[in-house]
Amino acid sequence: MRTKPIIFNILWLFFLATAISLPLQVLFLYEHDFMSFYEWKSVFMKLTPLNWLVMITTIVNGILCFKASTYIKYTIPASIFFVAINNFFVGAWGVDFNLLLTWSATLFYGIISYSYVYAHGLEAIENPERQWWKIPQRTQKSYPVWIEWQGKRKLLAKTFDISKTGAFISTISQSSKLIPAEVKIGESVRLILGTSEGDLSLGATIVRKEEQARGNYPVGLGVHFNGVGLTESIRLRRALAASY
């Protein structure tokens, strides 16, 4: 998926609005002054523990939906449970709402909460590797790079493209024979990258190994940077932003 399904942005706004609605209901039902700090203090004191649980879980839902996180499979059912319990007490013992209205509100909340299932959202959270919109944009720049593994420099290559989180490294001659067979996917290596900001030493993990050209990509290795320090991160960003 090149772009995030829009349903996640809609749900983020929905959950945020749900959380905000609880103190607003208290504000208007008890005719508090919207502009008074002391009135708002009184509003929050009137919120019950269940109200706070609903607010917290809906805010968590909103954040996780914005990130299209797989954890919404667990937090959304929890929030529906708290909303149902809260609405039951409001409808059964409250004087401002009846059970029919509160149960209808609970049903509506549950249906909207699970709307991501019918709008390509389920596919996105069950397959995080397809969330391509989260991948930082790569810049096609050629930097010389030494690849070190097992504590020794063993391969001089160049970057084909690079981002703040990883790079694709191609061999100088485009020959697959220059990629040692002992270099495996998942192996940790160290890169010495020559840039306009000077040499950068970056830890990395090999996530891709191509022994023949595919599309625009040549023979080479795909790597993901690990534990990049603040100084190296700043220098890398400067190098990527440079026009040469």
Distance separating the two termini: 31 Å
Strand pairing plus helix content: what structural class?
alpha+beta
**How much is the radius of gyration in Å?**
26 Å
Shape: elongated
Uncertain runs are none
Our estimate of the beta-strand percent is 15-25%
Q: How many extended strands? A: 6
Number of helices: 7
Give the oligomer, counting copies of the same chain as homo and different chains as hetero: single chain
Largest sheet descriptor: 6 strands, antiparallel, barrel
- The number of domains is 2
Mean pLDDT: 85
Give me the side-by-side strand order of the main sheet. 1-2-3-6-5-4
**Sequence of secondary-structure elements:** HHHHHHEEEEEEH
Summarize the structure.
With 244 residues, this protein is α+β, with helices and mostly antiparallel strands.
Task: Describe what you observe in this structure.
By secondary structure, the protein is of the alpha+beta class. The protein is built from 7 helices and 6 strands. It has 2 domains: 6-134, no CATH class; 144-241, Beta Barrel (Thrombin, subunit H). It is 44% helix and 21% strand. The chain has a 6-stranded antiparallel beta barrel with strand order 1-2-3-6-5-4. It starts with 5 loop residues before the first helix and ends with a helix. The mean pLDDT is 85.
